[in-house]
């Protein structure tokens, strides 16, 4: 394979991966960032260690759900700072309670937000619509000039949008306002960890001083 074809193939793969990320309804918003030394640095307000911990928790939840509620539940788990949001559908109130208990026992989980619905399992069409809606919400947050889009974690289930992240009260209100205006959004649920403007200023990277000519 020629160098030119290899470069074209690599560019196509990157595009496919980016599209796959943006089309996932329950994926965190990982777009934008700061350009430093030629590399795109994500600006998630969790530490890198915490991000890895949250990913590990989500994997463990999936494994536990397949073991404890096989074939009778559709459970999505999203962990942010070790708080786990459960969305999806279960067959009974007993299954809903069981899911919460099982997740609560997973190591390092500090709390469970149980938004599971006792109803029929959602269709593939419904899930595809949620993915599209998540992409639209993420796009609007990116377009906003007064928010840092990567601070927000977006989850969509049956047209309901759950917003998570470590944000100020101002950012929380603005993100909810933007999201509620997106066509197709049924409800916006704010599940933020609120921080002060002073805390935000401390965690915001300072721009390096400009060199004098």
Shape: globular
CATH class of the largest domain: Alpha Beta
Unreliable residue stretches:
2-24, 27-41
Number of helices: 6
Which range does the strand content fall in? Answer: 15-25%
The structural class is: alpha/beta
Strand segment count: 9
**What profile does the largest beta sheet have?**
4 strands, mixed
Compute the average pLDDT: 84
What is the terminal separation in angstroms? 46 Å
Q: Percent helix among the residues?
A: 40-55%
- Oligomeric category: single chain
CATH topology-level name of the largest domain: Histidine-containing Protein, Chain: A
- Just name the CATH architecture of the largest domain: 2-Layer Sandwich
Summarize the helix and strand pattern as letters: HEEHEEHEEHEEHEH
Total count of domains: 2
Radius of gyration: 19 Å
In words, what does this structure look like?
Helix content is 43%, strand content 23%. A hairpin with a 2-residue loop joins β1 and β2. It has two domains: 48-118, 2-Layer Sandwich (Histidine-containing Protein, Chain: A); 122-205, Histidine-containing Protein, Chain: A. 27% of the residues are buried. It is of the alpha/beta class and 213 residues long. The longest helix is centred in the first third of the chain and has 21 residues, at 48-68. It has helices at 3-22, 48-68, 93-104, 124-143, 169-180, 197-203, and strands at 34-36, 39-41, 73-80, 83-90, 111-114, 117-118, 153-157, 160-167, 187-194. Residues 2-24 and 27-41 have low confidence and may be disordered. The chain has six helices and nine strands, in the order αββαββαββαββαβα. α2 (48-68) packs across α3 (93-104). The strands form three sheets. Strands 3, 4, 5 and 6 form a four-stranded mixed sheet that branches. A three-stranded mixed sheet has the order 7-8-9. Strands 1-2 form a two-stranded antiparallel ribbon.
